[in-house]
Every structure is written in structure tokens, then in C-alpha cells.
Amino acid sequence: MLTVQGINVYYGAIHALKDLSINVKQGEIVTLIGANGAGKSTLLKTLSGLLKPKTGSIEFLDKSIVNQSVQAIVKEGLIHCPEGRRVFANMSVEENLELGAYLQDSSSLAADFQRVYNTFPRLLERKKQQAGTLSGGEQQMLAMGRAIMGHPKLLLLDEPSMGLAPLLVQDIFKIIKEVNDAGTTVLLVEQNAHQALKIADRAYVLETGRVVLEGDAKELADSDEIKMAYLGH
Asked: Is 177 contained in some domain?
């Protein structure tokens, strides 16, 4: 579904991603783990068209997306739910969700709202409320719901559990699994490596812009190297 080959990405003179290659197959949850500054969020921004690689290739559904606009990439079904939630604070929950569907046929809007409200019942209770008045967990649900409104074939999730209370973290990971089970492929960036490896099929470990380990998520979770570096064992 997604094939990234040897991409090099720079922020000015800083070489952020170095000959990086990953792939994601349809139906998988693939997680990227690594320390802050490893290049995880940079990779997601590059996939969604916010950054352009200097060299290398990115193919999504057998089509190059390297020189496509962000809007064209969204239209293809690759949708990015960014770090920090980024909801429109002065707009209602419902208006935020509607923005997520701006490229979709309006005839499916009612069904799309229903799907999101079924997934996140709390958003239905607060649909007329301003997004800026929601709790952190509710804002994360809204950001994910807005992404779902765009009919993602591949959903890029950047740090969905960041700053959330432990009980809410459990809810968010349960919902990610449900979204995947309903047919959406997921590429997940997550500081909570323990939870991410629990729900993922495969994982890549990034260090200073390079992939240093990859493999089955359960096997990586059991490896002493990963336990020491990322799981606090």
C-alpha cells in the first residue's frame, strides 16, 4: 500500500531523514518508535506532503506522491492526524468534523457523522460545544474523528496518547484497533512504545533519522534491546 524508498529530508542544513525506507501493507497497524528527534513526525509530514524529500521515492497505492499537493494526497486517501490535536478551537465539534469531509461527496456526510459518533459517543454529546472548551482527551477524539471523516485508506496518527490520563490512553488505543478492524490501515507514531507494540502488527525503530530495527511488533516488544531502550525494563 505504501512504499518509501531511500528518502532524504532536510530542515535547512539539518539532515532529518537519512536514506529511510519503510513499507506498510493494506490492513496493518505499523508503528514507528524512537526517542524525541528520531525523525518520526518528520516522516509523517513528508508522507502527507508537508515536507518534500530531496531524494528517494514514496509510492501510495502504486502511485508516486512525492510531488503531489497536500490536498491531492488527502484525496488519494492518505490522511494525517497531527501531533498536538490541532482542532479549530473557536468552532464547534460538528463544524470541526465537517471540515474533515471537505473533499468528500456531501451525500455521505450523514453516514460519516454517524460513524464518528458511534466511534466516539462523547463527541455526539458535545457536538454543539466549542472545540477549545473540550478536555485534552476529547480534543484527541475530535482530531481522530475529523481524520476519519475524510475516508482514510491509510491513517497517519502522530502521538495520539500524548498528555492524556492513563485511562484515556487505554481508550484511545482501543479505538485505534477498532478503526483498523473496520478496514483502515494505520501508521502510528507513539511515545508509549509499550501500548503501540501491543496493538501493532509490525514496527520500525528510528534513531537520528535512520531505521535501525524493524520486525514483528510482538517480537520487538520481547527483545531485550527494545525493553531496555523504550519499555523501561
From this structure: no
66 Ramachandran zone, left/alpha/beta (phi>0; psi -120 to 50): alpha
pLDDT digits (tens, 9 = 90+) for 180-226: 999 999 999 988 888 999 999 999 999 999 999 999 999 998 888 88
What string of H, E and C letters represents the secondary structure of 145-210? HHHHCCCCCEEEEECCCCCCCHHHHHHHHHHHHHHHHCCCEEEEECCCHHHHHHHCCEEEEEECCE
Cα 86 from Cα 3, distance rounded (Å):
27
- Angstrom CA distances, 182 to 70, 116, 131, 206, 231, stand at 25, 12, 26, 28, 29
Task: Write out the residue range of the structural domain in which residue 221 sits.
Answer: 1-77+152-159+184-233
Task: Provide the CATH number for the domain around residue 207.
Answer: 3.40.50.300
Half-sphere exposure of 135 (CA within 13 A, CB side): 8
